[in-house]
């Protein structure tokens, strides 16, 4: 990603009952005040900086189990 741009990372999880979906960054926190997660579980990072580079992990959890997916962001 180019520094200063907005990045979108998608995470699709379905089930019955619907799983609880959460995002986190390995080795750090999501950028404070510069991120949001929409109803479709897409993580948006605004005005990215080199400090935002790293691995972002989406975790979907329900009573049936847990699934994770990761995305590596380069800035």
UniProtKB/TrEMBL annotation:
GO MF annotation list: cell-cell adhesion mediator activity
One of the GO BP terms on file: homophilic cell adhesion via plasma membrane adhesion molecules
Pfam families named among the record's database cross-references: I-set
Chief subcellular location: membrane
Stretches assigned to the Ig-like domain: 1-74
Keyword vocabulary terms for this entry: Cell membrane, Disulfide bond, Glycoprotein, Immunoglobulin domain, Membrane, Repeat
Highest taxon, organism lineage: Eukaryota
Subcellular location: Cell membrane
A cellular component term, taken from the record's GO annotations: axon
UniProt protein name: ROBO1 protein
Lineage, top ranks: Eukaryota, Metazoa, Chordata, Craniata, Vertebrata
């Amino acid at each position: 990603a180019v520094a200063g741009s907005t990045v979108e990372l998608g995470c699709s999880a379905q089930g019955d009952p619907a799983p609880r979906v959460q995002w986190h960054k390995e080795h750090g926190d999501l950028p404070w005040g510069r991120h949001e997660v929409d109803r479709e579980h897409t993580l948006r990072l605004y005005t990215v900086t080199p400090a935002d580079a790293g691995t972002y992990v989406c975790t979907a959890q329900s009573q049936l189990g847990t699934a994770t997916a990761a995305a590596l962001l380069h800035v």
